[in-house]
Amino acid sequence: MNSPRGWFVHLAYLDDSDTKQKTSKLQVVAGVIVEDKSFKMIEMAMRSIRTQLVPREKIEDFKEFHACELYGGHGVFEGISQGKRFEAIKQLLRLLNIADGIPVVYGAVDIQKEKREIYGSADPLDIAFRICMKEVYEWVRNRSLRFDILKDKEAAVRAWIEELVIMIVDDCEPKHRNMLQSSFRTLRHPLPSPEEVPVGHRLPHFHDDMFFGDSRYSIGIQLADLCSYFIARHLDGDTDIAPFYEMIEPHVVYEQIYPDQADFKTPTPQLKGLANLLALRANETANEKQGIPELQSGNGDNSSRGSEGSEGGDGSGEASERQKAEG
């Protein structure tokens, strides 16, 4: 049977930041959205990276690529040169380019500012999780609406029906696990009321429940951990990790820093670095100095982000109005 593949299952892995920085003022949750067909390629690549990095005498002690330990040279990575560790990080982050690219989302909460809000008693982890969940849903919802129903009704209906996301979150202490699962179920399965059509207020592209995974056995959670780690340090102002953050930045499709941003945004491209400057000058010369061309924000599936700083790492189109209409 040679019919084109229709059903798409996306695995959305979420993890919170663990930078070990006592001065951090942010709670960050980041997610990577992996298409099912890319899973095995990522798994094989990560095994290869592990084999290259970890000495044979330590291989039995290896549990996972935990970003904090890998970057700092702790745990099983102690004694491995910084050059080898940093090269391994780059190889891992290059996996974001696999297939058509892996989308990245994140929600960040300014803990001190949030405490001064009217709902200041809310848990920052729960807020960041809810932001990420809505961002993942917006991404898959836009995919489900990629066909014009007036031009091809069958394709449009099939796309809407066949898009599915399974949410997988790094396991945590029971208190937080119950909190996050309650939030997922509340958003995914809102209680019906006489005034609303229930299906219009659900998030039907999510699987019917979320799941918790052990990061030691989950390549997706480890990849999400790397992204959340460097995003958090970038937002904290750490310029040392700029080369790593810049590998993540082009994959960020949605972001929100609460409470500064009222809603999550599609990042805005940002010009930075000598390479970009030289490219613009070359383009200007080729076009007889008619001026720098206007930047385009992209299609939302592979756009660049442009916010500032973190402790070692290195925008804003409007989120879809249709998302607001669906609640």
Tell me about this structure.
The chain is α/β, with parallel strands linked by helices and 327 residues long. The protein has one domain (8-269, 299-326). Helices cover 39% and strands 15% of the residues. It is built from eleven helices and eight strands. A six-stranded mixed sheet has the order 5-4-1-2-3-7, sandwiched between helices. Strands 6-8 form a two-stranded parallel sheet.
Supply database-style keywords.
alpha/beta, disordered C terminus, two-stranded parallel ribbon, 327 residues, six-stranded mixed beta sheet
Q: What composes the largest sheet?
A: 6 strands, mixed
Mean pLDDT: 82
Estimate nothing, just give the exact number of structural domains.
1
Order of helices and strands: EEHHHEHHHEHEHEHEHEH
- Counted beta strands: 8
Radius of gyration: 21 Å
Question: Treating each run of at least 4 consecutive H or I residues as one helix, how many helices?
Answer: 11
Distance between the termini: 40 Å
Strand order of the largest sheet: 5-4-1-2-3-7
Helix/strand class: alpha/beta
Taken from the alpha-carbon principal axes, the silhouette is globular
Q: How much helix, percentage-wise, in residues?
A: 25-40%
Strand content: 5-15%
Could you name the ranges where pLDDT drops below 50 across 5 or more consecutive residues? 271-327
List the helices and strands and how they pair.
Elements (H helix, E strand, L loop, with lengths): L7 E9 L9 E10 L3 H15 L13 H6 L9 H12 L10 E7 H5 L8 H21 L8 H10 E8 L3 H15 L22 E3 L5 H17 L1 E2 L3 H7 L3 E7 L14 H14 L23 E2 L9 H6 L1
Parallel strand pairs: 1-4, 3-7, 4-5, 6-8
Antiparallel strand pairs: 1-2, 2-3
Helix pairs in contact: 1-3, 5-7, 8-9
